[in-house]
Amino acid sequence: MTNSADDAVEVKPSSTSLHTQLVRFISVGVFTAAIDYGLTLLLTYLGLHRSAAKAIGWVFGTIAAYLANARWTFGAKVSGRTAATVGILYASTFAVQNFLYWVLNEPLMALGFEGAVKDTIAFVIAQGVATVTNFAIQRAFIFKER
């Protein structure tokens, strides 16, 4: 194992199973989604536009998710390299997530949902898509065992 930021990500010698990683990833996701969701609703309640509130909630949730998943889920060292790579991944899935959160607004209103209920449904759908994508890419490419 090396200390160079350009070399492979250091992973624990005794790797964890797919099932364990998935359970940990989902656990981290629930906790960090609560951070994201809580801030999003709070900031919206305080008058911030829902997209700006979502962006701020996402930033705080993302930082917590990276730190917890790198160390606990995948057993990797936190580094500038992995932070940058995960940052790019999360920025990409954030764009998709925010698009889904936005595009679901009208159909959910047409179905009779309003306010926090509508926003919660949109949030859960968008978060679900982002979670599956993030886990698959992190496990297969960013924190893969060497």
UniProtKB/TrEMBL annotation:
<feature type="transmembrane region" description="Helical">
    <location>
        <begin position="82"/>
        <end position="101"/>
    </location>
</feature>
<protein>
    <submittedName>
        <fullName>GtrA family protein</fullName>
    </submittedName>
</protein>
<feature type="transmembrane region" description="Helical">
    <location>
        <begin position="22"/>
        <end position="46"/>
    </location>
</feature>
<dbReference type="Pfam" id="PF04138">
    <property type="entry name" value="GtrA_DPMS_TM"/>
</dbReference>
<dbReference type="GO" id="GO:0005886">
    <property type="term" value="C:plasma membrane"/>
</dbReference>
<comment type="similarity">
    <text>Belongs to the GtrA family.</text>
</comment>
<keyword id="KW-1133">Transmembrane helix</keyword>
<feature type="transmembrane region" description="Helical">
    <location>
        <begin position="52"/>
        <end position="70"/>
    </location>
</feature>
<dbReference type="GO" id="GO:0000271">
    <property type="term" value="P:polysaccharide biosynthetic process"/>
</dbReference>
<feature type="transmembrane region" description="Helical">
    <location>
        <begin position="121"/>
        <end position="142"/>
    </location>
</feature>
<keyword id="KW-0812">Transmembrane</keyword>
<keyword id="KW-0472">Membrane</keyword>
<dbReference type="InterPro" id="IPR007267">
    <property type="entry name" value="GtrA_DPMS_TM"/>
</dbReference>
<dbReference type="InterPro" id="IPR051401">
    <property type="entry name" value="GtrA_CellWall_Glycosyl"/>
</dbReference>
<feature type="domain" description="GtrA/DPMS transmembrane">
    <location>
        <begin position="24"/>
        <end position="143"/>
    </location>
</feature>
